[in-house]
Amino acid sequence: MSKPRSVRHADVAGKVVLLRADLNVPLEDGNVADDTRIRAALPTLEHLLERGAAQVRVCSHLGRPEGEDPGLRMAPVAAQLSSLLGDERIVVLENTRFDPGETRNDQAFARELAEGCDLYVNDAFGSAHRAHSSTEAVARLLPAYAGLLLE
């Protein structure tokens, strides 16, 4: 098995990047209780921004919802990430597991995630082994790179 290309070698200037991060963090009373995983994603996010990405769309799962669960929305995660980086080029997408296609590695959901993106970066160490739309299927639709956590 070949080693995936590193984001260090990706031309991201002016491009829209889909970043799969592991932002599956504990929530308490609608707030992030432990932001360790969010902080772990910062080096790759900072690298993409420093290299001139036009936008970074961050996708992740949060918990194991059976469909849409208001208690597992990504808004608290997005707020915490914004407080740490505060760059308007970062857009946190909604919980990938709200779509039933995510865990089925559904091609249609992968196309939805990839739409409008120029390349894909997988920085989700804790989820990289899963054959889900946001980790496996989308990597076949866009030029794919390993994030700094996966190096």
What would you note in describing this structure?
The protein is α/β, with parallel strands linked by helices and 151 residues long. It has one domain (7-150): 3-Layer(aba) Sandwich (Rossmann fold). It is built from 4 helices and 7 strands, in the order βββαβαβαβαβ. It is globular and about 40 Å long. The protein starts with 15 loop residues before the first strand and ends in a 5-residue tail after the last strand.
What's this model, at a glance?
The chain is 25% helix and 16% strand.
List keywords for this structure.
globular; 25% helix; Rossmann fold; 7 strands; 4 helices; 16% strand; 151 residues
Topology, element by element:
Layout: E1 16-20, E2 27-28, E3 31-32, H1 36-50, E4 55-59, H2 75-84, E5 90-92, H3 107-114, E6 119-122, H4 133-137, E7 144-146
Parallel strand pairs: 1-4, 1-6, 4-5, 6-7
Antiparallel strand pairs: 2-3
